[in-house]
Amino acid sequence: MAIETGDQAPDFTLPRAGGGTVTLSEAWNEGPVALVFFPFAFSGRCQGELCELRDNIAVFDDAKVRIIGISVDSHHSLHAWAEEQGYTFDLVSDFWPHGDVAQAYGVFLHERGMANRASFLIDRGGVVRWSVVTDPGTSRPLAGYREAIAAL
Q1: Which contiguous run of DSSP H or E holds residue 122?
Q2: 69-121: per-residue pLDDT in tens?
Q3: Are 115 and 92 in contact (CB under 8 A)?
Q4: How many CB atoms are closer than 10 A to CB 98?
Q5: Which runs of consecutive H residues, i.e. helices, occur in 56-125?
Q6: How far is CA 16 from the centre of its chain?
Q7: The domain that contains 17 carries what CATH number?
Q8: What is the DSSP pairing of strand 90-93 with strand 108-109?
Q9: What total of structural domains would you count in the chain?
C-alpha cells in the first residue's frame, strides 16, 4: 500500500543521472519536492509524462517546487535519456538495491520488477501533502500537479 497524504516521506539518497547523488531530505529542506516515480526510461508513456513536466516546468519553478523523477533504471540510462529529451530536473536511479525506495513508498510492483506510476508532493517538513498512484498504463494528469501545488 502506498504511503498517504499526511505521512512522513521516507528519506533516501540515490545516484543522480549525470553524476552525484540526491538526498530527499536535503531537497525538501530547500523547498517542496514533487517525487515522480515512473516505470522505465525510453518508454513511450513515461517519456510522454516527463516531457509534459518538462514543457510545463514553469508551473513547478514558479512555486519553487523541485521535481525528482525516480525509476529502477541505471543512472547511466537515465543520464542518456535526460540528455536526449532535454530534461532539466533531476532523475535518480532506484536500481540497487533494486526498487528499495519504491518499496518504501509502497509503489514497487514485485511481479514486474519496476515502480508503478506514482507522484508525491512533499512539503519542507518532509510530509506528503498530495499523492496520486495509477497503474503502469495510465498517465497522471498535469492538472493534478497544478491543483496540489496551488494548495501548498
Answers
A1: strand 117-122
A2: 999 999 999 999 999 999 999 999 999 999 999 999 999 999 999 999 999 99
A3: no
A4: 12
A5: 57-62, 75-85, 100-104
A6: 12
A7: 3.40.30.10
A8: unpaired
A9: 1
